[in-house]
Amino acid sequence: MTGLRNSVSDTLVLARRSFMRIPRAPDLLLSYTVQPIMFVLLFVYVFGGAISTPGYDYVDFLMPGIIVQTMAFGGFVTALGLAEDLKKGLVDRFRSLPMSRAAVLSGRTLSDIALNSLSIAIMIGVGLIAGFSFDAPVAKIAAGVLLLLLWGYAFSWVFAFIGLSASSPESSQAFGFIIIFPLTFVSSAFVPIESMPMALETFAEINPFTTVVDAMRALFLGAPAGNDVWGAVAWSLAIAAVFAFLSVRRYKRAVVR
Amino acid sequence: MAGDLAIEAEGLRKSYGSVRALDGVDLRAPSGSVLGLLGPNGAGKTTAVRILTTLLPPDGGSARVVGLDVVEDAARLRTRIGLAGQYAAVDENLTGAENLEMVGRLYHLPRGEPKARAAELLDRFDLADAAGRLVRTYSGGMRRRLDLAAALVARPPVLFLDEPTTGLDPRSRLGLWETIEGRVADGTTVLLTTQYLDEADRLADRIAVIDHGRVIASGSSDELKDEVGGERLDVTLESQADTEAAIAALGPLSSESPIVVDGMLCVPIAGRRGTIAAAVRRLDQAGIGIDDVAIRRPTLDDVFLALTGHAAEPAPEASEGNEASEAEVAP
Fold first, then answer.
1. What is the pLDDT of residue B229?
2. How far is B267 from chain A (nearest CA, A)?
3. Could you list the residue range(s) of the whole structural domain that residue B280 is in?
């Protein structure tokens, strides 16, 4: 019991630490505020007119997709922070303390949830101004927000692993973008996948981003859900579990660069 | 505790791929003493510290700190040790006080204690005025002091300091030495790694000289210095042709015969006053021209030369993380 209580307390201490960084190094905040706003406006007003989305206004089609993408990127703060902690020897200090082995990671991923909540609120606000409208009961919309946070949390663990594996904070960021950008664009996030060439369409169909985006359209817009919602939850949990396991294992062996 | 040894390591081995970082290292430090690990970069000092602080499992051999095995009892041992590394491992985006409070909470100190302990340490380390400032505004010396304070939050009986002053300016270095001496006076056992003989000399009761993953000599600093041969006089002549004559002229100043290194004449001396004047007078009388005369105290290089027959590899002086060379800003 003491062990569990200490783990929770260690995680909260370190989540607080990660969170306190935000107002003190506000440059990071741009990624959670200005950048999503920019993307929404760019897609709605620049690409929107040229993309045909049968059955939906483009802004309605776009919002679930672009929020899912933003959630996946939200964890980059974790990668950046861990890579910095490694570089500066803080990981050595933490590992020499009688604290939970996983807390450095779980603390950071927990603090990402707060930041991701902020970006969801901002994006929905901007979307509503740009003409987005929900077409679902409040309970489903709330479920959708929870699914977004769960998805973002899963990717925080992906970024934790990247941050512990990359050779520098800069490369951890680049590495994350190289993996996540193609995955989000070759999915149903921005265009109907039927418009893609055959090979890409096949990839997009099995891409978990498509599953999650379709689940969000079901929860926010009342689109037919099929198994997408449970599929999205399953993908999120699986990604979180696999990368949490890999990250903790790597953390235990982490060595100062 | 067995024989009252705070640190006890036998036959420690560790390899990284084909590189043997530690090749059978034995270390012993009685409780309350200061053990200095002296060696150049890459000698294996940091690896030894990482093993003793449970960060790295050894490939072979065993080690106990305050009677606890570094592998078997790692979790319990972490409550009894403090580590200050060569990186000043503090969070730049927290204040000095917040850093220490965070460490106190992670040691699971009782409620209220982290705050009180942080205030106490900030005061003792002369950081009270800067307690509420973000660490990124701190100078290199202030960061190191904060790092050392963080290692002391839980009042550990054993303190590991990995090159605590590398890259610091002389004034900060002196300040840090005084702080470490204060801990030792309180009965803390300290293991200190350093590249500098003067640092080991001042702080350590016993010194283990490490080279290529092995302890090649150990003893008190006086014992080691005797092996090195004490102070020496370096004379650079105007003309190499005078070398023989100069050796003859300077011979009486030393009980050992002068040697020639890189065209420079090195005369071992036993710290006698007036040696420079005597040397200059003798060379002058012999009509030998001098470019330069200097007294040299033993350095790490001399220890290595004496002990191994080869010079210590040139240490790439503090290339990493050296915000440290900034001048100390007076609070």
1. 64
2. 43
3. 231-296
Say whether pLDDT at A53 is over 80. Answer: yes
The alpha carbon of B137 is separated from its chain's Cα centroid by a whole number of angstroms, namely 27
Contacts of B103 in chain A (CB under 8 A): 93, 97
CB contact under 8 Å between A89 and B102, yes or no, is no
Strand duo B189-194 + B34-38: pairing = parallel
Lowest-confidence segment of A78-92, A116-130, B20-34 by average pLDDT? A78-92
Residue B319 lies in a domain: no
**Average pLDDT value for chain B:** 84
Q: Supply the CATH number for residue B262's domain.
A: 3.30.70.100
Contacts of B120 by beta carbon, 8 Å cutoff, 6+ apart: none
B62 and B172 co-located in one domain: yes
Task: Return d(Cα A212, Cα A72) in angstroms, integer.
Answer: 11
- Chain A with chain B: Cβ pairs closer than 8 A: 74
Q: Which residue of A has its CA nearest to B154?
A: A97
Q: For chain A, say whether B74 makes contact (Cβ under 8 Å).
A: no
Residues B74 and B36 grouped into a single domain: yes
Q: Is residue B312 part of a domain?
A: no
**Taking CA atoms, what residue in A is nearest to B99?**
A17
What are the distances in angstroms from CA B239 to CA B244, B253, B264, B294? Answer: 11, 21, 11, 17
pLDDT for B214: 92
Of A17, A95, A256, the CB nearest to B102: A17
Are B238 and B185 in a shared domain? no
Give yes or no for A4 touching B (CB within 8 A).
no
Residues of chain A positioned with their CB less than 8 A from the CB of B87: 88-89, 92, 256
Q: What is the pLDDT of residue B149?
A: 92
pLDDT in tens, B99-149: 999 999 999 999 999 999 999 999 988 899 999 999 999 998 899 889 999
Q: Are residues A97 and B107, on separate chains, in Cβ contact within 8 Å?
A: yes
- Closest residue in A to B91 (Cα–Cα): A90
CB contact (8 A) between residue A92 and residue B89? yes
Cα separation of A23 and B306, whole Å? 56
Contact B87 A88 (CB under 8 A): yes
Interface predicted TM-score of the whole assembly (ipTM), two decimals? 0.85
With a cut of 50, say whether residue A153 has pLDDT above it.
Answer: yes
Summary count for chain A: helices (H), strands (E): 12, 0
Give the HSE-up count for residue A190: Cα atoms under 13 Å, Cβ half-sphere. Answer: 20
pLDDT value at position B325? 33
The CA dihedral of A150, A152, A155, A160, to the nearest 10 degrees, is -100
Chain B residues inside the 8 Å CB shell of A94: 106
B87 with B100, same domain: the answer is: yes
